[in-house]
Amino acid sequence: MTIKLLAIGKTDNKLLASLITDYQNRLGHYIKFEFEIIPDLKKVKHLSETQQKEKEGALILSKLAATDTLILLDEKGKQMHSIAFSEYLQKYMNSGIKQLVFVIGGPYGFSEAVYNKAQGMLSLSKMTFSHQMIRLFIVEQFYRAFTILKNEPYHHR
């Protein structure tokens, strides 16, 4: 199985980008992991929130294969602790799916078309974080989940 993370817009902060790369490299020991950036939309000042979500949604959907399982990182999603998240990933790995895709949306969230395509939604916290920080948090949680599954000492129970 491949885990793919899609995000709208590049990571501007070099320190965050460096930490994300560090966890990406660590993840490579456990699973095939891809991180793909969808470029920011241009000329958004003339677009409504709905129009921006629809345009971003079309870009997100264009990156998906018909067989992909889509999970949205969304404030309305299910929250779980790290051990439950590791079990969540294990369930998908056991199911035989080819690619599990997690998406971090744009500033206004997702279009209805993306919500309709999704097979699940996760929330990392009740708090609000920048989209750039969420990238680091989810990649670290992927790494933590695999160390839990392998019974390695990174996660202290």
From TrEMBL:
The UniProt record lists the keyword Membrane: no
SUPFAM superfamilies: alpha/beta knot (SSF75217)
Keywords: Cytoplasm, Methyltransferase, rRNA processing, S-adenosyl-L-methionine, Transferase
Compartments, as annotated in UniProt: Cytoplasm
EC number: 2.1.1.177
Keyword Hydrolase: no
Signal peptide: none
Enzyme class: transferase
UniProt main location, coarse: cytoplasm
Reaction catalysis annotation: pseudouridine(1915) in 23S rRNA + S-adenosyl-L-methionine = N(3)-methylpseudouridine(1915) in 23S rRNA + S-adenosyl-L-homocysteine + H(+)
Residues engaged in binding S-adenosyl-L-methionine: 73, 105, 124-129
Subunit text: Homodimer.
Protein family according to the UniProt entry: Belongs to the RNA methyltransferase RlmH family.
Role according to the record: Specifically methylates the pseudouridine at position 1915 (m3Psi1915) in 23S rRNA.
Protein name (database record): Ribosomal RNA large subunit methyltransferase H
Gene name for this UniProt entry: rlmH
